[in-house]
Amino acid sequence: MKPPIARMKPSEITTNILTGTQNLDSTIQIQLENGATIHIPQVPVTTATTIAAKSREQQPMGMPQVCQQPLTMPQPCQQFPMTGVKVQRNPPAGAQEFNGDQRPRLIYVKSATGQNIPVSFMTGPDGLITQVKRLPPNEVSRTPANRFTNGLPPLEPITPKIVQAPNTCTTMHGPVNGAGYFCGVMAPDQAVEDEEVDYEEIGVAETFAEYWPTKLKQGMPHPDAVVETATLSSVELPDITYDLSLPAHFQIAGSLSALQLEAVIYACQAHERILPSGERAGFLLGDGAGVGKGRAIAGIIYNNYLKGRKRSLWISVSNDLKFDAERDLQDIGAGTRIKVVSLNKLKYCRIDSEENGRFRKGVIFCTYTALIGESLTASSKYQARLRQLVQWLGHNFQGVIVFDECHKAKNLTMGNAGKSTKTGTTVLELQKLLPLARVVYASATGASEPKNMAYMTRLGLWGPGTAYAEFVDFVYAVERRGIGAMELVAMDMKLRGTYIARQLSFKDVTFHIQEVNMQPSFTNVYNQAAELWADISKKFTRACQLMNVDNRLQKIITCQFWCAHQRFFRNLCIASKVNTVVKMTRHAVRHGKAVVIGLQSTGESRTLENLERNNGKLTSFVSTSTMIIQSFVEKHFPAPRREAFIELLSTGEFVPETRSQPPRTKKPRPTNIDWMEDVDGGDSEDSDVEILQERWPPLPEESAKGHGRKRRGRPPTRTDKAERLTMQDRILMHLHGNMQAARQPEASEVDPSVPQQPKITERDVTRCILMKEKLLARVEELGRLLPPNTLDKLISKLGGTSKVAEMTGRRGRVVRLGRNDFRYESRVEEDISMDLVNYREKQRFMEGEKFVAIISEAASSGISLQSDKRVSNQRRRLHITLELPWSADRAIQQFGRTHRSNQVNSPEYVFVITNLAGERRFASTVAKRLESLGALTQGDRRATDARDLSQFNIDNSIGRHTLEHVMQQMAGDRQLTTKHIPDSFVGNFHEDCATALVGVGLLSMRQDNDRKTFTVEKDCNNITKFLNRILGCRVEIQNAIFKFFLGNMYSLITQMKRTGRYDLGILDLDAHGASVTSVKLMLFTREHATGTAATELHTVKVERGMSFEQALAKFHREAKDSYEGFYILKQKKRNKNTAVLCLNGQGPSTLVTRKESSTPSPVYLQLYRPNTGPQVKIENLASISLRYVLVSPEEAQEYWQHQYDICLDKCSHVFWSRLCPNPNSCEVGLRVRTYHVLSGLMLPIWGRIEKIIERNGRKIQIIRVKTDVNKKIVGTVVPSSVYNELVEDLSADSMVSSNQ
């Protein structure tokens, strides 16, 4: 990626050393130290030379006089950091005179050999140079230098090293000169002005706002506070035109709250429309966990039932949720009328047949797993559940189909079915087969990314009659528009009435991060394990070479290696927190709380493997970590067992081990329990697991063997569970093939074009077997130190199964009966079936029989564990998270188990993390997300960077770009940024970290003599892979690497902000308490795929200053410490001074509970200026004290009032007596600014808007604003220069109205 060339003025390229004289009509010729010379035409302006001379007189004595001759320039010359630069007066032949127009111009760069290199550039009305490019010489020779009237011929980018331009800061109002930063330090005469540069004048907004239905005039209040994103709250739902058939008592008795009733009405109203494609429009219910989606869905089904549509289909993630569906229908009074039947209880035949109880009306409840199920024995007509359902519903079906937790169908790729999951394709097929069905999509995270919406075909966002003919066009249009684009899509859907999304407020929820420092002994074990895995990696590579393993097989082994590696270290991290969690849980229960502990996985498969290995005997809890590494080496190391190899040598025949062993009796495993997903601990978002699933190709003989077999109810999502040869069998088969090839007589003629397979010797195989045996011995030695199964240990230490309710996906567990007496027992009790185990445990917890619950992610989907007013156990919930998912949204979903509607009290969340840098970071991400959910009114704290969640998000384009650079630095391809190396690191940072990254497969190394050469592996910018892999480094190494990465990323973000390239997404225009007044509103009404809506063009004025009376009142109200108060500059600048108000501000968030440090924390202050009010950035006291001095309010009043008055209609450049680069349009530092904001219906015309704005050299910026009459506006800023053009374009195909 080439760094962009900053925009600059020719006059800004100045120097310390000037030679000769310069005429007003001549060009400037700059010769650099490397011999290159830049010829730049002079900028003619009308400013008198006396102004420049006066400006030079005002320079401080310490500044060098850079201009020795009077020059006609827009502003005085600035200090230029290059030395030895010469300015010459004569331009080469063909150079053009610069006249300030916007045509392409030509300059020449003279190389060290004297060759003139033609360079083109463009200039805007503001005189700024942009689009600097090198012109091919052959094109110049054919084109007159002064006649580029039809545009320039094809150009090749100029090498950035030729011209190093000063930084500029681009705001919504245009570029702002930032040359003072170019020298590495701030020029003294620019120190104050640059502080007021508005490149961050808009703060990141509060995320959520209080919610109440605006168009609904009936219904009871919701029992708990509910919020909506501030973005969505800026647009209103359409007017209600639908009449419900629900009984009148619904609005009186509160069976449905006003919020739930609103969702029912708008869903039914959306269903009345038919899309241009001929399909019925659908509705997306995006309410968060705990708001009451289930009851709203029940209301939609009941309303349609009363309309005569008696059949409905409810698809969800777990069979346990059927009980919740029945409860929701019962609560709204429909339980006696509408019967709910589970699809997995029905036989594979007609649903309304006698065999299935003649089920003719009601709700069929099924899971996504059951939806894709197929029978092994049923007739072809009803072999698939999908066909069975479609037959029952009928092709003209107009009833309700609910896709609950519809994000389960997200892995659907249009046009590439090979990468789609069967769930996604089946959901899409069901909608196509029933075009008139009333579809409801329900998920809190369903619309998080455009690529995950492929199955939502009924929303009218793409397809016939829309702006995007295909789904891929829609995805491309949204993804290329940056962070805030999805929020605009959500606004668009709400405006059409097809989307609604509310969440419970976290206002009363408390949370903190409990950091657990690994004990030195545990750290030592962790480091030993990291070294062992690195050694295993080397041995595997060597063994694959000795065994001549082909690339295909080697890929399988490699993928299995990284899957096991990832699970091992995650398990180790979790195990290090067990003792802390036990102490916290016991303390909470003693103090009257109920505890919920969240896990991701259970490790059951490793427990069962250990039982099989030891014939069911147990002497302790099974160590999951030990079993992961031991099982992997035994099964996947490319070397056969010694006994099997000896048998192969003696018999010469290959017999798979699975056939040679006596058949085992398999325990029956239920196939209809959908929560049994977490036994292996694999995470659906784990990059290495996904790679494994994609790269496990079946052998030819396996493909033939599996051809024609009927699939079971569950598709084979785990490849290692399908019927196939084991890795050891493959190795033996490989050796057998090699032996047969060796026995064949040598052919007399060998085709040289065909590569010959090298022979594997018996000595090579023996060496590999010996390597494997030594590794297993080391694993056994380390296994004595590794911790036991986390879940079993937790239950044992917390009082056993009689005290702990377990809601997980495992079928059995290890219990401790005595000191050394352990037993594996089933979780199934005598009087219940397996699929009711978790439901029974939940009841015991909610009724107060048990006060501790442990839940896994797969088993807890949709489960309610809050302190419900209807249950006995109303203790406050303490929700402890042992293993956070690496997604804030998924974490919020987990927390929704204990924070739901109708609760007695709000829960308390504790994130238990280790002192590993990566884990700490993601805990902070989730904490910030929770904080934003509860921060509805934070006053001036909104101006601090604590609200900026972007600093906690690294899995984005900036993070990936940074990671790529970091890897290149580690490999030696880029210069190491030493300033980001942690001060506490001991050793050779580059060599130690690079070697560690080799050990985890992120770099490769080649050693020539004593020299090591590192190379970056492919996919080096994959953030998830990076975070997974570095867990396998030594503790001190991975922390150092992660801190180095963060330092580089923050540096890049700072640079991008200064150059106007950083996309903060949707920003809040009034985030600092500014007063916003609406001046004008134009409406452009047009039809869209699902109705009619208006695009709004607002003109607003923003008053952001702070009068001295306001500042003084704030000072008296909030100041507590001696260093708080009014400050003025220590040294006047240009004979002027300024005053600022400094009050205590919130520094970098310290949510992590850690041991107190001996070093005092720095004092952070929030700055307030008379012309711009509260500032986005906070500063520490030491930095402020270097430039300012504390004074009394009386002394500061004069300076405060003067700047306050001047900046009403004059920019900061004028205030500081500097020439303004944009005298007609500059708004830097103005107290009052004017903005044009385009909002409302945006999606159909997005491309047109973007083309107009970007054609004028501006970037799309989405902002949010609330006027003084509480009107919320979210939309795109329209620069004044394109306002008239945009109005003309929008008026061409819409009905226009205005309030003026």
UniProtKB/TrEMBL annotation:
Residues 221-528 form the Strawberry notch AAA domain. SUPFAM superfamilies: P-loop containing nucleoside triphosphate hydrolases (SSF52540). Residues 706-715 have a biased composition (Basic residues). Keywords: Transcription, Transcription regulation. One of its GO terms (molecular function) is histone binding. InterPro entries: P-loop_NTPase, SBNO_a/b_dom, SBNO_Helicase_C_dom, SNO, SNO_AAA. Residues 789-1068 form the Strawberry notch helicase C domain. Residues 675-691 have a biased composition (Acidic residues). GO terms for biological process: regulation of DNA-templated transcription. One of its GO terms (cellular component) is nucleus. Belongs to the SBNO family. This is Protein strawberry notch homolog 1. It comes from Drosophila madeirensis. The lineage of its organism: Eukaryota, Metazoa, Ecdysozoa, Arthropoda, Hexapoda.
